[in-house]
Amino acid sequence: GAMSVDSITDLDDNQSRLLEALQLSLPAEAQSKKEKARDKKLSLNPIYRQVPRLVDSCCQHLEKHGLQTVGIFRVGSSKKRVRQLREEFDRGIDVVLDEEHSIHDVAALLKEFLRDMPDPLLTRELYTPFINTLLLEPDEQLSTLQLLIYLLPPCNCDTLHRLLQFLSTVAGHAEDTTDKDGQEVSPGH
């Protein structure tokens, strides 16, 4: 299930780390050269964006099928279907999430993956510095957060970027959710 790559130097020194890294998302074949160039520019990783396949697949599915869904992360899911999906990802099966997969199952899988990661996304070493940015003046907070993000291992940095990109997209659609009958509803319902 969950895994992390500690640093690029670990990849050079440790064969198993390299094998884990190879299981991470590869760029989508349909991606244009312009998008690839943009992704490379945003990434601090000299190899390519290192986002776990499960995270990227779940985010893509939710962006494509779930932005109009009310309670995307609050509504219950099928534990059995979530477990089955997780097992397929764990076995390295090329899981294709499509419109037949429940939005809430996919959202639950993403939450479960992040919750079960053996190492935190923002790393134990940087946890206190991240928290202490709250004590800074607002103008210092942003530059300090940027520096702390630069200190994250590439996999963590790229995964954080992907999650924030996804959550920003979800937040951007919060005002225009519709119910199952196609009626617009307010975000609090």
Automatic annotation (TrEMBL):
InterPro entries, A to Z: Rho_GTPase_activation_prot, RHOGAP6/36, RhoGAP_dom
Regions annotated as coiled coil: none
Spans through the membrane: none
Superkingdom of origin: Eukaryota
Gene Ontology CC: cytoskeleton
GO terms, biological process: positive regulation of intracellular signal transduction; signal transduction
Record key words, sorted: GTPase activation
Alphabetical list of Gene3D superfamilies matching this protein: Rho GTPase activation protein (1.10.555.10)
Domain Rho-GAP: from-to ranges: 42-189
Pfam families xrefs: RhoGAP
GO MF entries: GTPase activator activity
Name of this chain's protein: RHG06 protein
